[in-house]
Recover the amino acids of this structure.
């Protein structure tokens, strides 16, 4: 029974079916439990959260990643799967916390002050959540002071900053300076992204990484984790 | 099921109904009071015996007659000419059904060029680039051969958007003569594509040989009538207003056999037709109507196609300028005239002035391909692979053309708006605006899987740089490597026994045995 639930969970991650109402790809699955329902069933069946994550969610995402690499899947498919995994992680969060099992890390993300563009930021949020990070999305047009406060209080391992405009990307440099002034710069890895910025700009303002897109962000974060280990 | 082509909803109309009538009436006047010079005796006699005013103009070595065609003769012909023409195919699923009133477009290759453009990709080293290497396509013109024609038909068989095949290259091998050219071009084409095959004829003496070849393939005379896998195109008219001696005779003989035929006229605005739009239109319409009339007088009910290949003259050389904007205008006008007569139309697009594949070729081709398609011709000779006006053919260009026709076909899908769509959309909008991320991405997937989202450009490169030619070249070689359904061994054997002049090397079964 447990094996069946885990196998279904993995398959539904691959299909990108968050709930039983989702269509997924395979029409035969229509109306059957999705990732949310299956995660709850797994918990009800006393399957350990680590098993749910590693053999269900992560194993499914690995297949999704492979399909994306071979162009069988496109970004909407990746996002659907990541969103489903993110929903499962929301269910698992209190249990993980109670059991002192850590997530892959805490990630705060914001579109900087003066900029209201958030498509890229939202996609990154979904993907990171699906990849096992605990994401705190601060929204758009976020004042520098608020970002500093979140870094101080929430203590994220990573801070993602997004800007679409050349007029707002300069705010990223101001945030770095503000973090330094508050003695917080070495407490958090800062990643930037958005159409206006580049690798050169990342180096110029002294952040830890420039990410082309959400997939790149996951790779960068994984590299940080490996270096840390 | 026949091929679907693409139905153009609300076809683009360049001229008004009133202007269509004006052109029609002026063409009738031209036919009646100016008339045509016929260098073909039989055509003059046929017109004369049916009530046209025919007078001898010259009785010397090159006799000719002035033929003045009364309006009622033309109107009778327009009445009896079929309004639906079926073009068959070796594979019945490739049949084309063309209705004169229905703007359903079929995309077709052709015409016959003398030059075949080979391509290769030599490597160049940048002088100042410390050994940086790039590959640049180079095009090498040479005389076309029967092997090239086989390759061209083979690739065209696999081009998704191509509905019918007009031979693309003139075969100029040393062992090809005027007497065996037709049987070889017909066999090479028919043996390498299961799509409809249309061609001109080099020698009238070969007409029965190619018709008999087609009968052997489909199983007999009645079968060929039912499934006309071949059709003909004849330039019986030389502009302005002259019936050519030999091609008119070919036209008459094809009509007698009841096979589908295109009445083709190709005046050049500025030299063989007036430079202004009204002028070339009145003339080309009169010329095509004269041909249609002759077809019906020879054999009432002959499936005839209104063929238009108008072109504007270049101002620098007075050569053809197929890439000119006016050429597309004339073609669209002709599409409207044919629709007015309810007779299927053979129209032209995609023939460009550019010499090699590249930016100019893309701009010229795509421009005319889009605008002429939008007008809804039935049989669009859109010249896959043709370059340098009508002079050279590039297989690589044909593969590139297929990519942009996929885009044109997608564009012409009917609008996707209905009460149900609107209701679904409202529900979706309300759902999404209530979410924190406000993204519609999750709704993309079912649409994407259903094929209702257009694919990216077929030859889009990875990374930062474009790589169109290399990718198209790869595709071209993939298509060449993909097998085609040849004529079966027994029929091939019969054809080689009964039809004289076919080169033994075209027998794929004998060739395989010899290897």
């Amino acid at each position: 029974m447990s094996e069946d639930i885990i196998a279904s969970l993995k398959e539904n991650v691959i299909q990108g079916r968050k709930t039983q109402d989702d269509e997924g790809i395979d029409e035969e699955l229509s109306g059957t439990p999705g990732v949310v329902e299956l995660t709850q069933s797994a918990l009800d069946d006393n399957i350990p959260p680590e098993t749910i994550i590693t053999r269900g969610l992560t194993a499914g995402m690995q297949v999704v990643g492979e399909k994306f690499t071979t162009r069988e899947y496109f970004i909407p498919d990746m996002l659907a799967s990541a969103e489903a995994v993110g929903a499962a992680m929301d269910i698992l969060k209190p249990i993980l916390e109670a059991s002192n099992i850590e997530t892959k890390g805490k990630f705060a993300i914001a579109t900087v002050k003066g900029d209201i563009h958030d498509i890229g930021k939202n996609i990154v949020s979904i993907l990171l959540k699906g990849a096992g990070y605990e994401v705190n999305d601060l929204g758009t047009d976020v004042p520098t002071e608020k970002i500093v406060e979140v870094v101080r209080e929430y203590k994220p391992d990573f801070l993602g900053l997004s800007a679409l405009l050349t007029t707002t990307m300069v705010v990223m440099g101001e945030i770095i300076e503000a973090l330094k002034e508050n003695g917080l710069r070495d407490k958090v890895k800062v990643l930037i992204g958005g159409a206006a910025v580049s690798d050169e700009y990342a180096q110029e303002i002294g952040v830890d990484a420039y990410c082309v897109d959400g997939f790149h962000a996951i790779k960068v974060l994984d590299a940080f984790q490996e270096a840390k280990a | 099921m026949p091929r679907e082509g693409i139905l153009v909803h609300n076809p683009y109309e360049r001229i008004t109904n009133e202007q269509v009538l004006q052109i029609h009436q002026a063409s009738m006047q031209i036919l009646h009071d100016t008339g045509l010079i016929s260098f073909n005796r039989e055509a003059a006699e046929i017109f004369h015996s049916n009530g046209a005013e025919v007078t001898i103009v010259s009785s010397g070595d090159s006799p000719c007659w002035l033929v003045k065609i009364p309006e009622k003769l033309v109107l009778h012909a327009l009445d009896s000419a079929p309004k639906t023409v079926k073009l068959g195919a070796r594979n019945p699923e490739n049949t084309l059904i063309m209705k004169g009133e229905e703007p359903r477009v079929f995309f077709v290759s052709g015409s016959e060029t003398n030059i075949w453009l080979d391509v290769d990709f030599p490597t160049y080293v940048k002088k100042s680039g410390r050994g940086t290497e790039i590959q640049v396509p180079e095009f090498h013109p040479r005389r076309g051969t029967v092997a090239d024609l086989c390759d061209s038909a083979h690739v065209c068989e696999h081009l998704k958007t191509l509905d019918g095949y007009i031979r693309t290259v003139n075969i100029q091998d040393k062992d090809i003569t005027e007497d065996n050219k037709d049987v070889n071009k017909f066999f090479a084409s028919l043996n390498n594509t299961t799509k409809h095959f249309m061609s001109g004829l080099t020698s009238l003496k070969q007409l029965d040989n190619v018709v008999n070849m087609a009968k052997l393939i489909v199983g007999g005379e009645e079968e060929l009538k039912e499934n006309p896998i071949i059709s003909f195109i004849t330039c019986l008219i030389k502009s302005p207003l002259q019936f050519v001696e030999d091609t008119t005779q070919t036209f008459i003989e094809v009509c007698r056999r009841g096979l589908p035929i295109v009445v083709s006229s190709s005046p050049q605005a500025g030299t063989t037709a007036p430079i202004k739009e009204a002028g070339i239109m009145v003339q080309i319409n009169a010329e095509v109507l004269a041909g249609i009339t002759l077809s019906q007088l020879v054999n009432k009910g002959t499936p005839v196609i209104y063929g238009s290949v108008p072109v504007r003259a270049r101002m620098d050389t007075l050569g053809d300028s197929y890439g000119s904007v006016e050429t597309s205008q004339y073609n669209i006008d002709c599409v409207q005239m044919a629709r007015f007569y309810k007779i299927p139309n053979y129209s032209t697009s995609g023939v460009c002035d550019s010499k090699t594949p590249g930016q100019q070729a893309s701009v010229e081709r795509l421009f005319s391909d889009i605008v002429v398609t939008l007008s809804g011709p039935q049989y669009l000779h859109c010249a896959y692979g043709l370059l340098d006006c009508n002079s050279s053919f590039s297989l690589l260009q044909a593969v590139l053309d297929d990519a942009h026709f996929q885009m044109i076909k997608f564009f012409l899908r009917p609008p996707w708006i209905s009460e149900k769509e609107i209701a679904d959309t409202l529900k979706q909008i309300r759902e999404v605006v209530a979410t924190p991320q406000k993204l519609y991405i999750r709704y993309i997937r079912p649409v994407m899987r259903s094929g209702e989202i257009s694919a990216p450009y077929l030859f889009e490169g990875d990374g930062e740089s474009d790589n169109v030619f290399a990718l198209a070249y790869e595709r071209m070689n993939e298509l060449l490597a993909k097998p085609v359904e040849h004529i079966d061994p027994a029929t091939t054997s019969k054809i080689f026994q009964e039809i004289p002049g076919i080169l033994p090397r075209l027998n794929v079964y004998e060739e395989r045995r010899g290897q």
Remarks:
- The two ends of chain B are 38 Å apart (CA to CA).
